[in-house]
Amino acid sequence: MLGIGGSLREGSQSERALRIALEGAAEVGVRTRLLSGPELVLPFYDAGEPDRDERATTLIEAVRQADGLIVVSPGYHGALSGLVKNALDYVEDLRDDQRPYLDGRAVGLAAVAYGWQAAVTTLEQLRTITHALRGWATPLGGSINSAETKFDEGGGASDEKSVRTLRLIGRQVAEFAVTRAA
């Protein structure tokens, strides 16, 4: 299970949310991996440029090997972050794979923003991108208003409902992957 997201700030609210969702996936017994913040600082995606730097190659290979993904983006001005969008653009490099794009993979999604409008619109954009990449968005997605919910360093949050939602998203992705593999 691969987690992608967060922001450039170490320990950001969106990165902490992503960690909680990955913990939910781990509860099902799957291995998890996190690519966040500085690991996602990549050159702008260019389909016409075949050469990839080390971080882009790491991301592409991690997505290629993943049976499921969890993507959490901060909501900036009503949209997903450029950091997360650029990382998702690199999935285009899987177009010619036996399992192209995100085909056959569950993708759990959540957005964390300072306000409900940005949290909801960011989640909707993540769903649209997931569908365009042939991924199976989990039935439950998370819109988290960081004006009301604060994540802590210990893996919790001020709102237990947000923690339960994120863990359930992680479990849904992991259960889909395990069921599909069987």
Task: Please specify the SSE layout and strand pairing.
Blueprint: E1 2-5, H1 13-26, E2 33-36, H2 54-65, E3 68-76, E4 79-80, H3 82-89, E5 106-113, H4 116-132, E6 136-137, E7 142-145, H5 160-181
Parallel strand pairs: 1-2, 1-3, 3-5, 5-6, 5-7
Antiparallel strand pairs: 3-4
Helix pairs in contact: 1-5
Brief digest:
This protein has 182 residues and is α/β, with parallel strands linked by helices. Helices cover 40% and strands 18% of the residues. The chain has a single domain, classed as Rossmann fold (3-Layer(aba) Sandwich).
Structure notes:
It comes from Amycolatopsis pretoriensis. The protein is of the alpha/beta class. The chain has a single domain (2-181), classed as 3-Layer(aba) Sandwich (Rossmann fold). Helices cover 40% and strands 18% of the residues. Strands 1, 2, 3, 4, 5, 6 and 7 form a 7-stranded mixed beta sheet that branches. Helix 1 (13-26) packs across helix 5. The longest helix is centred in the C-terminal third of the chain and has 22 residues, at 160-181. The radius of gyration is 15 Å and the shape is globular. The model has no long low-confidence stretch (mean pLDDT 96).
